[in-house]
Specification:
Elements lengths: L7 H20 L9 E3 L7 E3 L2 H7 L5 H9 L1
Antiparallel strand pairs: 1-2
Helix pairs in contact: 1-2, 1-3
């Protein structure tokens, strides 16, 4: 697989999109009235959780640069 190189505002925008995607998924679990999140896996049954760390660990985005942004958090 070839390397993907991003520069300047394009790179910042994609990294920010990855961070925002992760934040939007995790923020629903925060606080005393945090909501449940369903995590679907390739095998086995889905997992229902209110744990933001579990949600953050399972996030994998299709765009490699956005995925780097999500992994940085």
């Amino acid at each position: 697989m070839s390397k993907q190189i991003e520069f300047n505002s394009d790179a910042r925008a994609k990294l920010k999109a990855g961070v925002d995607a992760l934040a939007n998924a995790v923020k629903t679990t925060l606080g005393p009235k945090g909501r449940n999140v369903v995590i679907g896996k390739k095998f086995g049954s889905p997992h229902v959780t209110k744990d933001g760390v579990s949600v953050a660990k399972e996030i994998e985005l299709s765009d490699p640069v956005e995925n780097l942004g999500a992994q940085m958090v």
